[in-house]
Amino acid sequence: MKRNTRTPSKSRGRRDESPERSRPQVPAARPPSSTAPSTARTLGEHVALYLTELSAARGASEHTLRAYAKDLAEFVEHATALEITEPALVTARTLRGFLFALDERGLARSSARRKLSAVRSLFGHLLERGVIEQHPGKALRSGKVARALPGTIDASELDHLLACCDLSKPLGRRDRALLEFVYSAGTRAAEAVSLDLRDLDLASGVARVRGKGRKERLVGIGSRARAALEAYLSDPKRPAPTDGRAVFLNARGGRLTTRALGLILDRAALHSGLPKKLHPHLLRHSFATHLLDAGADLKSVQDLLGHAHITTTQIYTHVSIERLHQVYAHSHPRSGHP
Fold first, then answer.
1. CA dist., res. 138 & res. 146, Å (int)
2. Catalytic-residue membership of 217
3. 155-331: CATH class
4. How far, in Å, CA of 12 to CA of 8, rounded?
5. Is residue 105 among the annotated active site residues?
6. pLDDT digits (tens, 9 = 90+) for 161-183
7. Is 66 a catalytic residue?
C-alpha cells in the first residue's frame, strides 16, 4: 500500500518537462556597449582601424601605410586559414607559425622580421585599447639579423650622373635640380617631392622638409644645388604648378611622385652608363657616407638625416670603415695585397 501512495520521483518529473526547459541555460548575449564596441570586430576590421589611426593620428607616410597594409594582410590571411578571426585567439604559436610559413616561402630573414614587427605593433595597439589582455608576441624571440651595408656611389660617379641631365631642355633642368637637391640635402624621396615653394630659402641655403611622422627639420642646400634650383625655378618654360605650391613638377604642372623620381634617376643612370642599380635612397646613403668620410660627427649626420635614433645612423660608420679597409688594402705596401 505504501508503494501505491508514493509521490512521483523527481526524475520522473524531469521526463515530463518540455525540451526547451531541459537544455542548459546559457546567459543571453549582451549587446556591445558603447565603451567597448571593438570586442565584436574581426581581426581584419581591427587591422583596418589600426591603419586609419596610423594615417590620421600618427602621421605615417603613404609608403609606411602601404608596407603595413601589405604585411598585416598577409598575417590576416594566415590566421584566417587557421580559422582565427578574432585578435584574442592569436597566440605566440600563431606568430611562430606565421614566421615558419614565411621561411618556407624563402623570404629573407630581414623581410620576415619587418612583417613580424608590423604584427607586433598591431597587437601593441590592441593591448593599449583593451581589446586583448595579453600581447601574443611578448614571449616570442626572433634572431638578430645582420644589417646589409647601404650601397653608395662615389663623388666622381655622382658628377658623371648629374652631367647626363640635358640642360637644354626644361625637363632636363628640372631633373638636375631635383637630383642635386636630394643629394645635397640627403632627403628621402617622399621628402623631396613634397617640398613646397615656401619651404625653400635659397638665400640662406636651407630648406624645411617633413619626414616620417610629419616631423619637420631643416636641411642644408649646397651651392651647386642652389644654382640648379634657381635656374629651374626661374625657367620661363617651367609649367605653372596646379596647386601653386609644389617645387618639382611634372610636364602638366602637377606635383612629382616618388615613382617619377625613381624613373628620373633610372633615366639618368642609363644615359651615364653606370653599372650600378641606382635608386633615390642611394643618394641619401651617399650623402651620409660622404659626410662621415670627410670628418663630420655622427650626431650632426643624425640630425641632418632626421633619424630618431643614432643607432640607425651608425650603419654609415660601418660603410666608412669598410671603405677605409679597401683603401688600405689596395694602397699600403704591407697590407698583404698582391
1. 22
2. no
3. mainly alpha
4. 6
5. no
6. 999 899 999 999 999 999 999 99
7. no
